[in-house]
Amino acid sequence: MSMPTVDDAANVLADPTAYADEPRLHAALTALRARRPVARVEAPGYQPFWAITRHADVLAVERTDRVFTNWPRPVLMTARSDEMQAAIGIRTLIHMDDPQHRVVRAIAADWFSPRAMKAMGERIDELARHYVDRMRDTGGECDFVREVAVNYPLYVIMSLLGVPESDFPLMLKLTQELVGSDDDELKRATPSDETASALLEMFAYFKDLTDSRRANPTEDLASSIANATVDGEPLSDIDTMSYYAIIATAGHDTTTSSISGGLRALVEHPGQLRRLRADPGLMPRATEEIIRWVTPVKAFMRTAARDTVVGDVTIPEGDSLLLSYVSANRDEDAFKDPFRFDIEREPNKHVAFGFGVHFCLGAGLARMEIGKFFDRLLPRLRSIELAGEPELTATTFVGGLKHLPIRFELD
């Protein structure tokens, strides 16, 4: 990888197209880790921020959540989008800090607990088998992302929420428009404000769902959110809608990216594929390596609550920091040979799920979905190869493959 200048490398972090060009992205991040691991970024159209690219520094910021807050800027967006989301008043879990975050997170925590995951295991295994069957039924050639990978985790998370199956296509459209707003293929056809428009449509849908669950509670996550109280008071409409939105998007697109990116990695590393097929007991470690390799959540933001130091750089109070998970997960100081896909990697202290109080609520569910899908696929897989060029989503937040053409034989 050729080394770009430090300034060019830093600006890559605010360029959605860079995340669709992995050689360019990783050349830039490698340069930053080596030469300026805490880098000031002043990209056109964005409020300035500090890019944090080393694994150790990302962990240090995550550990000190009272110094580095999620509010008011948890995600890198254009300055215009920052203003629009503030005007809408969206407040998801990723916008909140303790103690509010801890109380609101608890509303859904039981649904993602180890006990809940154990209870869901059989159903997720059935769904994994069903979608491997659907893959077989494509006739031996398909776009794995569009025909398989997007549907399996969508079905899991929407069923958990209690969304009717007839509305799954609408939810797929809205979640992809939200996380794909920087991608020319995935974003809305409207000329501007794609993210706000998709978000408002999703909010309108979940407002109707909330009214229904408050009138007639059912045994699903939507009812738990709709009827939750904090300090004896129900959640506000905006907090309720925001809760649904983060569950729907985070529970779907990230797992889709991990499964499709994991399959691509196994196809491109046939020795690793043979090793995993020969020893299915490696699946837990392989799952962690897939998640590290793909890193579907590319970054989160934090804001300094006071003057403080990261690395050897003083961050003034009020300044924003971008925690580059995709960089931290390829840090040479944290991982041996980080650009090698290794299903037996151990230890594997990746930060793809974050760290500390904001560790991903649905991490256990994502791990289960990934592991069970490959548990069902690999014993039936006789052959597999790429049938075209994989294509990645343009993004600065959540993303992965949007197309993965493959040719295969399944029993």
Automatic annotation (TrEMBL):
Enzyme Commission code: 1.14.-.-
SUPFAM superfamilies: Cytochrome P450 (SSF48264)
A Pfam match: p450
Top EC class, one word: oxidoreductase
Gene Ontology terms: biological process: cholesterol catabolic process
A molecular function GO annotation: iron ion binding
Cofactor needs: heme
Gene3D superfamilies given in the database record: Cytochrome P450
RNA-binding is among the record's keywords: no
Keywords: Heme, Iron, Metal-binding, Monooxygenase, Oxidoreductase
Family: Belongs to the cytochrome P450 family.
Protein name stated in the entry: Cytochrome P450-terp
Highest classification ranks of the organism: Bacteria, Bacillati, Actinomycetota, Actinomycetes, Mycobacteriales
